[in-house]
Amino acid sequence: MTDQDAQFFADHPDRRARIRLPAKEFAKNRQRAVGVVDEMEAEFRTLGDHNRDRRRVLVWRVPEGNPFYDPARRPLLKIPFLLFADETVEDNDEVLLPLVHQIMVDAAKEHGMVR
């Protein structure tokens, strides 16, 4: 199975971010039973009570110069994201990169890395 995000960025080398619906994936529960769940299910649960149809995954291609950049791997960061009730978010870098930036700044502030 091909990683859909890696394939997207290979097909669109000029793009640095994308937004998409969570994919389905297999997950094992405590009793070792395997079932199908939404991608990043646990991460979305930490965002509080919400409608499942508002879930999106923001995928950011880590740029050169970032401490986590590895030219051999080209790492992709997946960020759980919830839409507002009637919100749509365009799938282009002009819209998505400022969202990713703000999420990163907010997370850094929350963890005391930036004031």
Question: Can you walk me through this structure?
Answer:
The protein starts with a helix and ends in a 5-residue tail after the last helix. The chain is of the alpha+beta class and 115 residues long. Strand 2 (24-28) and strand 3 (34-38) form a beta hairpin. Helix content is 27%, strand content 24%. It is built from three helices and five strands, in the order αβββαββα. The mean pLDDT is 88. The strands form two sheets. It has a three-stranded antiparallel beta sheet. A two-stranded antiparallel ribbon has the order 2-3.
Q: Which key terms come to mind for this protein?
A:
115 residues, alpha+beta, 5 strands, globular
Question: How do the helices and strands follow one another from N- to C-terminus?
Answer: HEEEHEEH
Helix content: 25-40%
* Helix segment tally: 3
Low-confidence stretches: none
Number of domains: 1
Residue fraction in strands? 15-25%
> Using only CA atoms, what is the Rg?
16 Å
Alpha-carbon distance between the two ends: 42 Å
Biggest sheet features: 3 strands, antiparallel
Q: Which structural class should the secondary elements be placed in?
A: alpha+beta
Q: What number is the mean pLDDT?
A: 88
What is the spatial order of strands in the main beta sheet?
Answer: 1-4-5
Overall form? globular
Number of strands: 5
Nutshell version of this structure?
The chain is an alpha+beta fold and 115 residues long. It has helices at residues 4-11, 41-45, 93-110; strands at residues 17-20, 24-28, 34-38, 55-61, 76-82.
